[in-house]
Amino acid sequence: MLKAGHIAVVTHLVKTGSLPENQFAYGKEVVKEKFATAAAYFAVDRLVSGAVRQINGTLNIVGSFLEKIPGMESLVSFAKTFINISLGNLDECCMAYTFYHAEQSSFKSAADGVVIYFQNWKTILKDALKTAVIVVIISGVAWFLLMFGIIGILSVLGVPGILGLLAALVLTVMIMMVVKSSIMDSYTMVCMVCSYLQVAPTTEITFDLYDKLCKLSSKFKSLLQKAGEAV
Q1: Inside any domain, residue 34
Q2: pTM to 2 decimals?
Q3: Is 158 left (phi over 0), alpha (psi -120 to 50) or beta?
Q4: Contact yes or no for 12/20 (Cβ under 8 A)
Q5: 229: in domain
Q6: For 90, what's the count of Cα atoms within 13 Å in the CB-facing half-sphere?
Q7: Number of structural domains found in the chain
Q8: Is 230 within a domain?
Q9: Inside any domain, residue 175
Q10: pLDDT tens digits for 77-127?
Q11: Smallest Cα–Cα separation from 7: which of 186, 223, 198, 199?
Q12: Exposed e or buried b for every residue in 24-33, given b needs 16+ CB within 10 A?
């Protein structure tokens, strides 16, 4: 639910151009108004996340088949990486769309959100690439600065060479894992949600995509059925 509140705040920022005064209280209130109970939120989130996994799984199967073609391994591996980055925040983007269209049922907005995402996959994948490059550069710089900083401190403390290097490596990995989960993942999510919400409001939905996605994912089909029941 905390993640949903964060997404609600980001959606408000994109929609109005400003952050709400009390962000925590605002996020909590919007999530409560939209979903009423935690169970309602998790019901939508489960279906969207399940649909993403199934669609991503289908794309990976196709990719694995193409990898068997000589000379395609590197290209397919590269494409898979950025498709996974792009799809990694699909559920957050769809959740943002439910907050953007508060007048619709959550299931309807989430289903529309998935379709809109795939309609704009080129734009979103391009932004995912830019975000990934920024994250890799920042992470790389932070890694080396942190690693050498820890090595310097351990050297001053008199920790011997090899032991100092191993200790520095372990500490760097642990700290970078915390940085990734607390900062980098949040940064990536905000960037992808903002990118999505820049194109979503003006997108005219291609309705044949509903049928195509239903064939790729039973979870998306269930989401669409729930949307029909909620109308």
Answers
A1: yes
A2: 0.80
A3: left
A4: yes
A5: no
A6: 32
A7: 1
A8: no
A9: yes
A10: 666 666 666 677 888 888 899 899 888 888 888 888 888 888 888 888 888
A11: 186
A12: eebbbebbee
